[in-house]
TrEMBL record:
Positions contributing to Mg(2+) binding: 12, 199
Residues that, per the record, bind substrate: 13-17, 25, 29, 57-59, 61, 63, 180, 186-188
Gene Ontology terms for molecular function: transferase activity
Name of this protein: Isoprenyl transferase
Keyword tags: Magnesium, Metal-binding, Transferase
Length: 235
């Protein structure tokens, strides 16, 4: 089987999954975070090199105060656990998104997570937290414009590759496969630039129930696709 080098996941459906069990939405998030630890190991076992997961979007601040607080609390404990699991499983963790809106202590833990795992050589695990693709592109343009004003970059030298190097995903190849759980058929502001030629896989399975078997199903489907990049079949 051809294993995608980079899999990106929109882990959706925590709230609905919890509701279906008569539990509060935040219980779904707790179980979703547990599942993430499992999927990292599964992804690595399967041979995936890069796994990029959407934890919190720039739009998710619109949720109730209670839910946002619960999520932030969860990210705190998840980050601490991840420092340990990254060490045990040799994962190199990167963070995508704008951290400045997060609480100082969470920013510090995330920095520690990235710093302490930077020399690891196993799974490249990328956490998109307070991430929005439009926000990422605007931040990139702001920095690029500044570099033009400062004379470090000439406008005529701007290429796709140079622009990509200003995005949060610099050093990370584009995803081969995007998975969204729980039935919604949209991108919700995720990796708009990077997903230009990725294959998409949507499943009804809610994130807390998504397991290795479901991941293998997605990869099997991916294997049945013919990637074209604008060319003609067979060439
Ligand atoms: C995904 O689950 C996790 C986050 C967006 C933080 P949801 O919370 O979106 O769950 P549903 O989609 O409402 O069921
Ligand atoms: C996208 O899921 C964001 C994350 C998974 C973190 P949402 O549940 O927030 O997206 P919408 O609101 O259904 O588009
Ligand atoms: Mg959702």
């Amino acid at each position: 089987m051809n294993i995608p080098q980079h899999v990106a996941i929109i882990l959706d459906g925590n709230g609905r999954w919890a509701k279906s069990k008569g539990m509060p939405r935040n219980y779904g998030h707790v179980r979703g975070a547990k599942n993430l630890e499992k999927i990292c190991r599964d992804a690595y076992d399967i041979g995936i090199k890069y796994l990029t997961v959407y934890l919190f979007s720039t739009e998710n601040w619109k949720r109730s105060r209670e839910e946002v607080d619960g999520l932030m609390k969860l990210f705190r404990s998840y980050t601490k656990t991840c420092i340990k699991t990254a060490r045990e499983n040799n994962m190199k963790v990167r963070v995508l998104g704008d951290p400045t809106a997060l609480a100082d202590d969470l920013q510090e833990s995330l920095k520690e997570l990235v710093e302490s795992s930077k020399n690891n050589t196993g799974l490249n695990f990328n956490l998109a937290i307070n991430y929005g693709s439009r926000d990422e592109i605007v931040r990139a343009i702001r920095q690029l414009s500044q570099d033009c004003v400062d004379g470090a970059v000439k406008p005529e030298d701007i290429t796709e590759d140079l622009f990509s190097a200003y995005l949060d995903t610099r050093e990370i190849p584009d995803p081969d496969l995007l998975i969204r759980t729980s039935g919604e058929l949209r991108l919700s502001n995720y990796l708009l630039w990077q997903l230009a030629y990725s294959e998409f896989y949507f499943t009804e399975v809610p994130w807390p129930a998504f397991n290795k078997e479901e991941l293998l199903k997605a990869i099997e489907k991916y294997n049945g696709r013919e990637r074209r990049y604008g060319g003609v079949k067979g060439e």
